[in-house]
Design goal:
About 20% of the residues lie in helices and about 35% in strands. By secondary structure, it is α+β, with helices and mostly antiparallel strands. A five-stranded mixed β-barrel has the order 1-2-3-4-5. Strands 7-8-6-9 form a four-stranded antiparallel β-sheet, with helices on one face. It is globular and about 50 Å long.
């Protein structure tokens, strides 16, 4: 699955889902996060975006949602994990410029990794697909941090990611 939104594939039953975030020490800088998802059952959707802030979720995960009185679909829990990882990169020089965010995306492209940046918070959310060479990607992420090119956060990682030194 690649990152999508309704404009790319109008024949799919796209919905917006909302994560209730729990900021700790001011991070994340939002109380909720909205993502696109594809309906796969009455109360289940498959995430169609890489989360910028929600922890423990990745592109392609299937989650249970429940509507509130206004029809807003709130994410309750994951029921099927995609095997993808969510890694967030905050460029050291600041990610508020499109060129800086694009440079991060370009640096990870050879690994088969896609993502998107968000200007307001100066970060890039990367989807590391399960088919990627996890050890090489993790080494690259850590190397970039050690060289002072960026800071990173492991938003959602697999046992394979954790096992890599």
């Amino acid at each position: 699955m690649t990152e999508n939104n309704p404009e790319r594939d109008p024949d799919v039953d796209w919905v917006r889902v909302v994560f209730d975030l729990e900021p700790e020490d001011g991070w994340p800088p939002a109380r909720t996060e909205r993502l696109w998802a594809v309906r796969v059952g009455n109360d289940r959707v498959r995430l169609g975006n890489t989360p910028f802030f929600a922890r423990g979720f990745a592109l392609g995960d299937v989650v249970v949602v429940a509507p509130d009185e206004d029809g807003v679909l709130w994410v309750k829990q994951a029921v099927e994990y995609s095997g993808n990882c969510t890694i967030r990169i905050i460029p050291a020089e600041g990610g508020h410029q499109v060129e800086v965010r694009q440079a991060v995306l370009d640096a990870f492209a050879p690994f088969g990794i896609e993502g998107e940046g968000i200007e307001q918070f100066g970060l890039v959310a990367l989807n590391v697909p399960s088919a990627a060479e996890i050890s090489a990607v993790k080494r690259f992420v850590i190397q970039g941090a050690e060289e002072g090119r960026w800071h990173y956060e492991e938003g959602c990682v697999t046992p394979e990611w954790r096992a890599m030194e």
